[in-house]
Amino acid sequence: MPHFFASGRSGDRVEILGVDARHLAGPLRGRVGERVAVIDPAGFLLTVELVSVSARAVTGRVVESRPHQPEPRVRVTMAIAMLPATSLDHVLSRCTELGACAFALVRAERSVARGEKPERWATICREAAMLAGRLTVPPVRGPVGLDELLSGEGVIILDGQAERSLSEVGRMDEVTLAIGPEGGWSPAERGLAASRLARLGPRVLRADTAAVAALALTLGLNGEFES
């Protein structure tokens, strides 16, 4: 069962509202007396015994509380060129689980043309955050142009033709990793981002694979997987 987000807490009483309450009361068939894991955004993981269950509101009693700080110290925004729906959904879900702090969708020259689905993207990130027990749900913005993305600080454009590798970039506090479309960045886009290019490795990866690998490598280089 996933973790749920506490909508409010007073002493040993917790309230779960909105979509989490509907999900818990409906498909998951939560019952009075059952115990569930609840995230307190103040930084605690709670074991909560359900006291009342309805689609409007679920209330419970805290039976255990322990400090919970799953968020990475390094803030990594994943900038993803617009991909086919299945691939984009995969990136949003898996990178949320790993610890991406935010997403920016990019209109690249070779991107797949498709409609915007902000509600779906937000739902995917929320469900992945619940599964991973995160304190926050990463926001999704865009689509934005590459020029707009490059106007920010700490942007690294992943490209197989780059001279330096991502592992050479070193430790950082905040970074944006940009992953191109399946056809790769165009020559014009490479020229625009020339000073910010970095390669991920010697093999050609699908865009969704590259996104997960780049995030995992960056978190690892910054000590996020150390016990």
List the SSEs and their pairings.
Elements: E1 4-5, E2 8-10, E3 13-17, H1 18-25, E4 35-40, E5 44-53, E6 57-67, E7 75-81, H2 85-98, E8 102-107, H3 118-132, E9 140-145, H4 146-150, E10 155-158, E11 174-179, H5 187-192, E12 197-198, H6 207-221
Parallel strand pairs: 1-4, 7-8, 7-11, 8-9, 10-11, 10-12
Antiparallel strand pairs: 2-3, 3-6, 4-5, 5-6
Radius of gyration: 20 Å
Residue fraction in strands: 25-35%
Give the averaged pLDDT, no decimals. 92
Order of helices and strands: EEEHEEEEHEHEHEEHEH
Helix % is 25-40%
Report low-confidence residues grouped into runs of 5 or more. none
Q: Largest beta sheet, briefly?
A: 6 strands, mixed
Return the structural class.
alpha/beta
Shape: elongated
Strand order of the largest sheet: 1-4-5-6-3-2
Task: Please report the total strand number as a whole number.
Answer: 12
- Compute the separation of the termini in Å: 25 Å
Oligomeric organization of the protein chains: single chain
Helix run count: 6
Using brief descriptors, characterize the structure shown.
28% helix, six-stranded parallel beta sheet, six-stranded mixed beta sheet, alpha/beta
